[in-house]
Amino acid sequence: MGSAPSLDERHYVREGATQTAVKILVVGHFAVGKTTLIGSISEIEPLSTEETMTQAAEPVDDLKGVQGKTTTTVAMDFGRLTISDRVVLYLFGTPGQQRFVQMWEDMARGALGALVLVDPERLADSFPVIDLIEHYGLDYAIAVNHFDGTPLRDERALREALDLLDDTPVVTCDARDEKSSAAALTTLVRYLLDRTR
After folding, report:
1. What phi, psi does 187 have (nearest 5°)?
2. Which of 165, 161, 181, 162 lies closest to 173 in space, CA to CA?
3. For residue 92, is it within any domain?
4. Is residue 1 included in any domain, yes or no?
5. Which CATH number do you get for residue 149?
6. Rounded mean pLDDT of 89-111?
7. How confident is the model at residue 34 (pLDDT cuts 50, 70, 90)?
8. Which helix (H) or strand (E) holds 14?
9. Does residue 160 lie in a domain region?
10. What residues make up the domain containing 36?
């Protein structure tokens, strides 16, 4: 195993640019695509704490609708995305299982907002996630991760099902696709900027 590269300012800030670091949470229920989204968009090698799922997790991790999933995040994902010469996003992906909720308080500290990934076929799984985000007082946008073979859902029906405020952004994305993931994050950032003006 080689030694880790040294980290200095050049890895994080473009030469001559003054940047503002913005902490964003990427959240969602179990197996919704958080690790995939961060991996598709991060301009640095993302930190991932994916581990192989074992039989011990079978009683607590509901694999209904996600057959074939063999790994899961056990701590967090981390990535970075520079969206302008002035703004860089630090992306923190949370584990989706209920047993990891105690980590959320630390991860939410200092976050400007959250991108909530939603599977339209498992909307009820998103309720506890949205409740937590609201509990920590974070503004958020909903990104409906469109999985292969699933029909597109009507935005109004999604808003009603998730009991969203009228101004909460809702976008459809493909977490595997860099441009689609970037568009979802851009929607969130614009919304956050509007909320701080």
Report:
1. -60, -45
2. 181
3. yes
4. no
5. 3.40.50.300
6. 79
7. very high
8. none
9. yes
10. 18-47+70-194
Would you give the DSSP letter of residue 121?
G
Contact 171, 143 (CB under 8 A): yes
pLDDT value of residue 53: 46
- What is the C-alpha to C-alpha distance for residues 62 and 72, in angstroms, rounded to an integer? 12
pLDDT digits (tens, 9 = 90+) for 173-185: 999 999 999 999 9
Report residue 123 as tokens. 């909307």
| Encoded amino acid at 85, one letter | D
In a domain, 52, yes or no: no
Alpha helices of the chain — where are they, by DSSP H? Answer: 34-41, 104-108, 127-135, 155-162, 178-196
Q: Answer whether 0.85 is exceeded by the pTM.
A: no
Evaluate whether 77 touches 49 at the Cβ level (below 8 Å).
Answer: yes
Which residue, among 68, 93, 67, 71, has the nearest Cα to 80 in the 3D structure? 93
**Mean per-residue pLDDT for 161-167?**
95
Which single residue is written with the structure tokens 């011990």? Answer: 56
Residue 99 amino acid letter = R
Q: Which amino acid is at 24?
A: I
DSSP string, 56-108: GGTTTS--TT-TT--EEEEEEEEEEEE-SSSEEEEEEEPP-SGGGGGGHHHHH
Strands 47-52 and 20-28: unpaired
Number of domains in the chain: 1
